[in-house]
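Hi L.,

As promised, Ubiquitin carboxyl-terminal hydrolase CYLD:
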Amino acid sequence: MTSTSCHYFIVTKKTRGVLTVNPGRLCYMTTQKYNAHQETTKHPKTLSVYAFDSLAGIPKDVEISCLEELSLEDAQLLLAVPDDTERLSMFSDQPAFQAARSLSVGTAVTVKEDGKNLRGVIRYIGKRTEPRYPNPISGTYYGVELQGSDRGKAKNVGMYSHETLFQYEKDCGILVPISRIKPVVPSSLSPSRTEPSGAYSDPQTDELSPGDRVIYFNGPKCRSGMVVEVQQQNGNQMVWISTDTDEMGRQGGEICIPLEMVSKGDIPGDITEPERIDFDTTPPEDYTNLDVNSMVEVILGKRNSYGIIRWIGKLPGREETMAGLELEEDLGVSDGTFKGTRFFRCPNKRALFVKLSSCHPDSRFHGSADDHKQEMSQPDYTEMDEDVSGENLEVVPPISAEQIDHLLIGRMKGIQGHCNSCYMDAALFSLFSCSSALDSMLFKTTTSQDAPIQKTLLRDIVIPLRSKGFVECRHVMKLRQLLQKHGYSRSFTTEEKDPEEFLIVVMHHILALEPLLKLSAAGKVQESYCYQIFLDQNHSLVLPTVQQLLEHSFHNAGLKLAEVPSCLILQMPRFGKKFKMFDKIIPSLELDITDLLSEGPQQCIMCGHLAVEECADCFKDPTFNLTGFKIFCHKCSTQVHSHPKRRSHQPTRLEIPKGYMGRSIPQTLIRDRLELYAVLCIETSHYVSFVKYGPNSHDWIFFDSMADRQGEMDGFNIPEVHLCPEVGTYLEMSPAELANQVPRDMKGVAKRLFCDAYMYLYQSTSMCLYR
């Protein structure tokens, strides 16, 4: 199937049917099937199309009225946009879309990166990777080299491996989709301003950002205010401004003005403060209950923004009680200072000073703390909630490396913790945020009694996590309440449990999922959902890798794998939550399980030929430098055991698969490997997780469902996800270098991964639904 042998579409409206497709999703249909469908159906109402980034091989019937056909070029441009909503918005704004698609190499542009507009020049237009099976095409990206004062601000170097796509100076290359790029168009000034008619101001000084002080023209008068947001509306650039005074003379308010009517600066003699944004609202009844560290929301532009009150008091020259907020996004104007005086500390562009009366309690918590606690203590579902038989749910793929930054990084991201839920939060985040290894359990047929639990897991947790990057604590509590109601434990809503206990309840008792692990021992097959690593007291390991731990444990127990598992869940050797057998464990990014399989030929570790013998004594011999199971061909076994210290060893014969005896096997025998995708860690009874989201050793994120708390009495927790590339630095060290690292001195959160690992999650990449 080639790119030109297909018809491409974008879904513009919500579809119906068992398998729904989100608006904004791209689809395709082979030209052969499209033509046959047109010939055999006189008035077709639907098309059987394949959705990009959906389950491979499953066509979906979509109403033609919901589809808009695309050219091959437009489909490639839109496919690079990572979010369905953002993609549809880009396509719907045709003037902006056509302007962006006309860009060429050498064009000066602005790139949106972390909420900021960076200036650069297009150096490359094309695909980032080859199409991923079964998709016939891949997305078209723009490679931009940053210029001027924005040089060195590139942050996604390494994420796309785009060094080979175009040349750029260090930390100046960015690869972005069409939705994050636009041409530099200098803003013309109104003739009523002080500049000569027809003149253009320097675009470097006229580029507006939230928080900039501006003057604007609304009718004959010139007024002042602060930029809240710059956006596209019907092909025109519009500026939302928080006004100092409106046309009625009232203080505070907002207005939307075309960009050409706005200029940076202040009216001479203007007494308004440059770091202020006001709202003329009727004081809400509940704002008097707000205090320092309260979680609040304010309206900026046409959107709600969220933050935490870090300071309350009076500002110089102001009579009203003001609140200093630390926002969750870079929508503020300082780092906690006002007119040169520091009132609190926070990251730059996160601080905003507003009237306290403009703040409302964070609606994401559904009311006051007391109401929220009462709600969380009582079941918040109804019998109607349990009747989900007719509900259609869109299949959402795991979060990709391209989506990590804008979808999953920051405060109030991930899964919100509440009331000893960290074990469940960390487990669910690890399993479903960036991997599809266990997605089959979300769609497996189950009993009518347990169907609500499965639907809650999919609809209220997995889908919001992957589509919005955030799951409210009430949804996790609902899952816990259902587990408790259906009799699986009386304490699911109150007590902390072990992750494996929760996983076994869901996979075995509720979904009756086929065991993930099939172990062969003495000719008999045992089944399990996870594997606890045990070691004998005479082991010689000091700073082990996960590979070594698994091999030693299998060897001591006389175990083999009966088949390659789709997902392997390993529990580290420790006794309870406090005692650890090893101070550090080195994560193995890949597990080579070839020699752990009970069937199939095995290679001699010395020469690579067909192995016929295994030696347990060599495996325990610390002087034998080669790692892994000690399996040899006849010739190498004779040579190894001719050493005086090994003459007493007693190697055993291996079972040779039929047809292989007397034959040599190729040196390039395909090795069976599993890929690490998540690690759960525990310290002082609190679980966190590390998730590997990309192919590089530095591609890690860290998740804590209780990273910050509003207060011990409220019980509101602030989850947080952040990048932790420092992990890669330690993974690239030699064992000797790593052994010399003092845990408390390790950078960032790396110490928790190496020293507090509780459970490792591996997946077979060939069995995942999405890759």
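Residues 598-669 form one domain.

Thanks again for sending the construct details.

K.
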